[in-house]
Amino acid sequence: MHIESFYEPDSGTWTYLLGDPEEKVAAIIDPVWVYDPVSGHTDESFVQAILDRARDVGWRIEWVLETHAHADHLTAAGWIRGKTGAQIACGKGICSVQENFVRVFNMNDVPTDGSQFDRLLQNGDTITLGGLNIEVMETPGHTADSLTYRVGDVAFIGDTLFAPAFGSARCDFPGGDAGCLYDSVQRLYELPRDTRLFLCHDYPKQGQEPVRDVTVEESRNSNVHISGTTTRESFVEMREQRDAQLGLPRLILPSLQVNILAGDSPDADSNGVVYLRVPFNRSIAALIKGDRK
Known about the structure:
This protein has 293 residues and is an alpha/beta fold. Helix content is 26%, strand content 24%. The protein has a 6-stranded mixed beta sheet, covered by helices on one side. It has a 6-stranded mixed beta sheet with strand order 10-11-12-13-14-15. A hairpin with a 2-residue loop joins β10 (126-129) and β11. α4 packs across α6.
């Protein structure tokens, strides 16, 4: 097993290239499609650099693995599939995410059965990558579709945990649940203590390097939100109070219109142009409930 990491600073996101050097096959985990909301243009240079690296070492991209439907960046999964023929996998909980955001954006012609993805995963599933077996753990809480991908002594955990100094992810998005997140973290903490947890995000201070991975033991000992001694009740109380004070991620509206489609863009309008929609004077929560007033 070989892991290479690529940090996208605008969204603070880690994208990983996981390869089997003997079989010369690879998967890309949580690829970022850089998007400028002011101009409406995408920039493929970040993800192209990952494809270039795979090409340079002779690896064929077989899978794109999503840990969840991201709200802070657009996924490049569809772009990669178009370039390489790779299959896209995500959690089966994506269907409920699609149902919510189809209502938000009035995308009534979009199927909400997850058919935009090549494989929907659930707890206990396995993906074969050359000689590697990638085990799937459902770790919901941040979102309903959150997954962890475990390979040997490493686990790619999405937003289930952050570096110990940053704690845990918010749980106030539709389908999120602080109690479920606590339970998911306990499942991670039951892994062998030297298991390396590869993070999806880090937000370092100026001059500092982003944290890429942390061991189970390190997180259990020093995570500021949820250590090995934190009770479920205290975590839920902290998380819900904290989430009530948070604003929405800068790219949540464009991201989810693309990410529920596995990284494809919405259909073009009659003039051949693709548009991303912004609800005017309506909250996401109200639109999910069907409140149009």
